[in-house]
């Protein structure tokens, strides 16, 4: 499944889930179920934004964007975080109204069944999006999948609370659950925005990936002396890697180029979608630290 296909599936399922959740709210009049349905609207808008971002990210490099368009995915994830924050504020408002004017819940049996079906669809979609996003290294799909799975957890909590409110007759439980839902999605929105802003600001990748790069360079740079000033960053699914490679001063350009080709082939085979820049230097430029060639 390609990223645009996964995003289109997310959009279609999101619309269906919203309809089901709104029906559950319609039958019960529950503020908590209303808040759950409102979060599904965020899923729909986010899926649409992800679809557009993925199409832009797939565009090839051009004179105005020589490094490609892959960072477009981060804008989708940031937008999703903002929408989640907006949804949380709206839910707080509805919960406050529920505290001021609590009411009896109606049609719980039908509402709970409909909401369970919607949660099952969301669970399937969320796990699919996360697997696909990680396999294709797509920040937009992974963020969408994590949000959908958070929605599943939220929905289960809402259902349990609504059932408890119906069984005990405690009217204030319903708006209280809605308030807890709002706090939960606020946390999710914050995490999404933090990760996406890190990508836009060229935050360093995880330490494990840098260590893997160091090991590969040290193993496949035979003939060179050392490598230093290693830097890496993610731009959507692509990882950009650059470093300085120190070679003996008597080495020919062709020999040094052959070493660079060998390193690049090893990195691309292991890490797949990477762009590599290697600056070759003579031994007089050695810093005597960094990656020691085996």
State the strand order across the main sheet: 3-2-1-4
CATH superfamily of the largest domain: Cation efflux protein transmembrane domain
Q: Strand share of the residues?
A: 5-15%
Please give the radius of gyration in angstroms: 25 Å
Query: Ranges with pLDDT <50 over ≥5 residues?
Result: none
Q: What is the top-level CATH class of the largest domain?
A: Mainly Alpha
Q: What is the percent of helical residues?
A: 55-70%
CATH topology of the largest domain: Alpha-lytic protease prodomain-like
CATH architecture of the largest domain: Up-down Bundle
Largest β sheet strand count, sense and barrel closure:
4 strands, mixed
- How many domains? 2
**Strand-pairing-aware structural class:** alpha+beta
The arrangement of helices and strands along the chain is: HHHHHHHEEHEE
Instruction: Give a count of the beta strands, DSSP E runs of length 2 or more.
Output: 4
Give the termini distance in whole angstroms: 40 Å
Overall residue-averaged pLDDT value: 82
Q: What's the number of helices?
A: 8
Shape by Cα distribution: elongated
Domain Cation efflux protein transmembrane: 8-201
Transmembrane segments: 7-28, 40-60, 72-92, 112-131, 152-170
Subcellular location: Membrane
Protein name: Cadmium transporter
